[in-house]
Amino acid sequence: MPFRILIVEDTPSEADTLKYHLSRYAKDHGQSFSVEVIPTAFEFLERHPPADLIFMDIDLPGINGMEAAEILRSYDAETPLVFVTNLAQYAVQGYQVDAIDFIVKPVEYYDFAMRMDRAMRVARRTSQETITLPDADGIRVVRLESIIFIDIVKHSLLYHIEGSDEPLRRRGTITEAAKELSDHGFVKIAASCIINMAQVARIRSASVVMSDGTELFFSRSQRKAALEKLAEYMGRSI
User: Fold this and answer.
1) pLDDT, tens digit, for every residue of 158-174?
2) In this structure, what are the phi and psi dihedrals at residue 52, rounded to the nearest 5 degrees?
3) What is the pTM of this model?
């Protein structure tokens, strides 16, 4: 699956330069990128497009890039952000919104490639540790470790998150969710429920008690396999 890269840039020629550099970098490093250009911070914030890496100009019309980054961090503390701008005086402020780097225009390829190496290391790690879920304000980027369990009501998956009173909802099936999370410490315990093994507080013969106190019951068909995976996981965790 290609890495999703957003370029928030209002000058077409500058956006084209970044797209060219990304294409060249992908070819040189055997990567696959899906690149989208968004011309304004307002559109970026209104749409909440999911991304693995964001390149953000600061000198944008209306809401500038720094203001947009501050709003971004209110619902997404994880997605790596690189500022690309001719306003070098904002470099220090950029680190206050956890920007991983700062590239000054005009962007030369070899400088870009060196910084892209670091950005990709962060993007790979982050993309494996987070999931994007819809919420009342648009989307929310959630760390996998904070998901306690997932169950389903009709066609809506309910993601129960640490510190959240209400679950986040997403259309889908338990089978799809189980496949997506199978390599991240989650196990299916019933036809309608997946648990995060790191969030298990107690294992009983017929159920598990999660960190939030919720008791969830094994189905007859899933019990043996789920207990074996839990035993293997707990053995690794000790």
Assistant:
1) 999 998 889 999 999 99
2) -95, -20
3) 0.69
